[in-house]
Design a protein that fits this description.
Length: 190
């Protein structure tokens, strides 16, 4: 599982420019997506496209929200695709997740988005400040074998410290509370 946001795109460009050989069983899924067209500069999927091409991964093995559908249908379809993958024996061995300066991860911004979708794998997240989002749920996150939070920048030092000292006070930490293998990689450099 791959995150959007700004931090991982340096890594995605490195992968694009030096693509490793990948196992033909590899599946990639997005942790979340802004509800924008795939050609938008704000689309995580759109921005990752050149990396997917360089990896020569089949489009059928890249799970992402179809933001050309209405929001509710988009979330329902992404939920169904992820659910089917897991129900048919698929596993998520590794997820990279980001952490926002407000403590969110994926598009789980608050208690409401964190607790919605108890049986679902993906939900729509309405945003007053736009754009709306589609996000994986805590339910899906709890099924991941290993999670690595990638955090970079001095502006994230405070939230990283809070995650380490008071995890119950940070949405990102609460999202992974049922996962055994969680790591936090932080650098003040961006």
């Amino acid at each position: 599982m791959l995150p959007g946001g700004n931090t991982p795109f340096t890594i995605y460009r490195l992968i694009r420019d030096n693509p490793p050989k990948i196992d033909n069983r590899l599946h990639i899924m997005l942790s979340d997506e802004r509800y924008v067209p795939p050609f938008s500069a704000d689309s995580n999927f759109g921005r990752m496209g050149s990396m997917f091409s360089a990896l020569k991964i089949s489009a059928t093995r890249v799970f992402h929200p179809d933001c050309e559908l209405p929001l509710k249908e988009c979330a329902e379809k992404y939920n169904l695709n992820l659910s089917n993958y897991l129900e048919n024996g698929g596993i998520i061995t590794l997820a990279l997740l980001g952490v926002g300066i407000d403590g969110h991860t994926a598009s789980l911004f608050d208690h409401n988005s964190l607790t919605r979708g108890k049986q679902a794998c993906a939900i729509a997240v309405k945003r007053d400040d736009g754009p709306d989002r589609i996000s994986v749920t805590k339910n899906l996150i709890s099924r991941i074998k290993r999670i690595v939070f990638l955090c970079a920048g001095v502006e994230k030092a405070g939230i990283v410290e809070k995650m380490e000292q008071n995890p119950n006070g940070v949405i990102a930490a609460r999202a992974v509370e049922n996962v055994e293998n969680v790591e936090l990689w932080y650098s003040a450099l961006t």
